[in-house]
Amino acid sequence: MNGLNMKFGWRDNFLDGLRPVRELEKYVQIKGTQAEIDAQNMKHKELNDIIFHVVKKGVREIVLNNVFGQRYIGSRIYLPGTEDKVKIDVHNFPGNDLGVFLGGHSITVHGNAQDGVGNTMDSGEIVVHGRAGDVVAMSMRGGKVFIRDNVGYRTAIHMKEYKDKVPVLVIGGTAQDFFGEYMAGGKVILLGLNLKQGEYHKANYIGTGMHGGVIYLRGSVEEHQLGKEVGVRQLDHNDWEVVTKYVKEFCGHFDYSEKEILAGNFQKLLPVSKRPYGKIYAY
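RE: above sequence
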């Protein structure tokens, strides 16, 4: 079928000609609870099908090689009635929505990631040894995400928390515009480790519409870069405990000095209102 057919547009580039799992098993090597999968010739649904297939067979550690843009990795791993968690190592470059809806499992990317890392993530951990694209941690509601380098636009948009379920996002580099937009909860730490001495973060509209959660920002921003819905505060003792804890975890994943990072200048960004746009609604 032609990839430009009038009925489905580009649909068949991703879904037509999908192979059943039995035809994909030749790309898998299983040893006990470990599996290695060559993803080079797989469409994104095929890859996610074979991942879930080996998990159902008892595999709990998966290495994905030759990943080039396949989406939704880790999204379909559901193990009701067991406390088992799955660890996935991704080599090369996963596509959009890595770890979407992730439920307690862990994903490590040995390379860059694209948009939507940790989208609506529930629990677990994602570690990216590189940069990530736009809308990282969008609607994230639990778990932890560590990005070594920069992130794109609208990172942490609509992050939320409920009671003791508090998502955490730590970014080693800097971010693009609308960072922390409409945040409703969670803890975000932006370290700016790739900025030069005296260089400011570049993002504008930081915290626009923010009405919950907290952003810890290492380095400097101008007042005009902040959304009208956020205020700047100094860190107190409890804040330093939070920052120290997650900086230590960040350094455990990447080759950085905890002492040097914590010696930097930190500031805390908080929402000035729980309902910043309340006046435009009737109730």
